Amino acid sequence: MLNRRSLLRGSAAAGAAGTALLAGLNGARAQAGGAPIPVGAALPMSGIAAADGIEFQNGLTMAVDEINAAGGVLGRPLELHVEDTADMGADLVTQAMQRLIDRYETPVIMNGYNSGTNMVEMDVAADNDVIFCHYNTMISHNNKFKEDPERYYGCFQGDPPEYYYGPGLLTYLNTLIESGQWTPANRKIALIPSANEYSITIANAVRDQAAEFGWEVSLYETVQFPNNQWGPTLAKLRQDPPAVIAVTHFLPQDLAQFMVQFAPQPMNSLIYMQYGPSLPAFKEIGGEAVKGVLYSTVVGCLPDEFSEAFRSSYRARFGENSSYLTGSQTYDGLWKWALAAAIAGGPGAPFDREQAMKVAASMNRLIYRGVNGICRFDPDGQSAFCYPTQIADASLGMPHQFLQHQDVAADPVMVAPGSYAKAAFMMPPWMS
């Protein structure tokens, strides 16, 4: 029988341990022959973010198969339904989510990211009393939740908000200097966001705190979204070369073009980018020009022993060029929800507020160790705690990962935070 002590031991587990925990819950309370549970996902399967949309679907597919192999949720198998959000935006995303609820009666919607929504999808979840978890990585989620926690009780952001990229980057740069790994030519940092909320929030977080960390913002240049013509921006950068160029735009194909256009006339500047370099398209387009690029992500599959089985299984199933760094997000999210729903006594159904609130409470209590690290929801916003910027205990927060492309024939390597790092920082070849 599953007792409280064994449940608490298992509540920080994923992979085989998560399977064992779910099987234990199913053995104790399974509903034999239960009807399938429809799981919804509104993902950009076409359009500018289709590469990520495909990986988000892959992660969900793996999680569904593993959860079903463990007996589903209290004996009921999961059944995945995906609606395409194309080029995203508020109307497309909310319509896709409502279709999932109306057509399939999904008690949960597990999204990756959808840009340009201003978090209106939280209203769809609230109006229908369904659990909604996403990886938009936006502080606007936290702000909206705080406006009315009772209304948005079932809305969760499975990773930390993008705000933490700002202080996290500044802290990391100063750590490189203080440890003697890098001596900057000056204390200037140039910020290059694209015209979307996510990129601008990150750039503003750096800008607003730069002086506290001893940095001067020498250029703040907003570019179009999407953007692959970097000539005018590079011309401005070359007029006053900064020690750091921080590009907070996130599409991998556009960031690769930045490096291709930077390479013929490089500057003595570290180049930091945001999220996009984790995707295969960045290396495929950029080639040798991307070697030395630093980037970070507040969520992504860790290169540790714990996630090794997931990484190898993911690529074996979806191909060597697939990105488990992205698929891992929805994979972990669905696993955490499945465990929470089983603990709560079942997933409920749309408009079953009482049961949805039980599942939400279970998600808040559950400290889940997934392949992306620890997911523990901050009650002041219902997004994952960020380690080390927001919380100093690595066992209670999701790591803000800094990675570097050191060999274009291999995966990027993690260089920070120290408790997770697999390699030391390497000076970029254009600065050698």
From TrEMBL:
Q: Which residues form the Leucine-binding protein domain?
A: 36-387
Q: Which residues form the signal peptide?
A: 1-22
Q: Which Pfam families match?
A: Peripla_BP_6 (PF13458)
User: What CDD domains does UniProt report for this protein, alphabetically?
Assistant: PBP1_ABC_transporter_LIVBP-like
- Source domain of life is Bacteria
Query: From its record, what is one biological process in GO terms?
Result: amino acid transport
Q: Provide the alphabetized UniProt keywords.
A: Amino-acid transport, Signal, Transport
Name the record gives this protein: Amino acid ABC transporter substrate-binding protein
